[in-house]
Amino acid sequence: MRKRDNMKSIRDVIDKVLQLNNMHSKLDEVEVVLAWKEVFGDVIHKKTRHLMLQHDGTLLVTLNSGPLKEEFNHEKEKIVKMLNTHLKRDVVMRVRIR
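RE: above sequence
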């Protein structure tokens, strides 16, 4: 068996274990939280009180700033696109700002 085939088999096994233990969504949430800070920077990150990725791909965002909430509410599609582009896959399907 070639090394590449071996790696694919290992990846498949890990994926299967994650699916069986319902861990994919938690790993996705961790990746999204890390991506949030990288994409939007320290200033926005410090004004973010809470981030949570739901199983259906909805990202719940709680912000401390009223004007920032208003601005982000108008840019939801852009936020989804920026995060998914950064993650190089579609994880976030929609954003809800609170």
